[in-house]
Request: fold
Amino acid sequence: MTVKISIKGPIISSAEKWIYDYFEEEATCAKDIREALPQTGEDIEVTINSYGGYVDQGAEIYTMLKAYPGKVSINVVAAYSAASVIAMAGNPTRISPVGRIMIHNASAENWGDYRDMDRMSDVLKNANQSMVGAYVQKTGLTKEDILQKMDKELWLTAEEAVSLGFADEIMFSGDNATKLVASGTTANMIPRNVIEKTKQFLISKDQKNESTKSETNDIQAIVEAAVSKAMSEFKTSIEEKQLPKGSNIISNKKTKSLIARLRKGE
Reply:
């Protein structure tokens, strides 16, 4: 039996996945793939339709698939940027006749002075070097050739992807033809500031709910104490007045109503 796994939406961190789930947006994290992989080594068929996302998450998923003991077949609908790295783990990697692959340089937002910018430049170059390994192993092209293609942001049709070695065959044709590598884009990813604001909003909401629960518990304790005190005073009053056992004071409707209202906190 072949187990089917889907990689859809942006490639994100496991820590952010709940935000996408909250908004009912498609996204994939390494934890999703780890939990989807069979424990008994059955063959798997992975379908990729992703614009890419975080480099490290893509690398983690790629590594998991390469290390998987069973056969890993990958079908590419769209595999851009970090998702294109994952596509390189297939044996075979097939691409839809209308599919595309895109490879490009890693990118990031940064703030600071010239030293921070120099540092970020080094980080990005290092990320490029890490991605190149997956492309070189799959295609047989040189590292220098791949880096030049990444500089240009290379978009590949199915036939181009196969001819360059990024894919092994075109789906539905039976021919070992087209391959496509698509460079990543984060156009469909939830912006970082939205994620942070959502986290703060939900945390604040939870804290407010806890505060409300606490206040409710405090009010309940006060009401219970008031009822207890009123009952005690009421009993003392009866004992002091030495009312006869048949007295209708205890069964008086107004008294019962008052006690009931006190218990309800009215």
About this structure: Strands lie at 3-8, 44-50, 72-80, 93-103, 154-156, 169-170, 181-182. The longest strand covers residues 93-103. Confidence is low (pLDDT under 50) at residues 175-185, 241-252. The two ends are 65 Å apart (CA to CA).
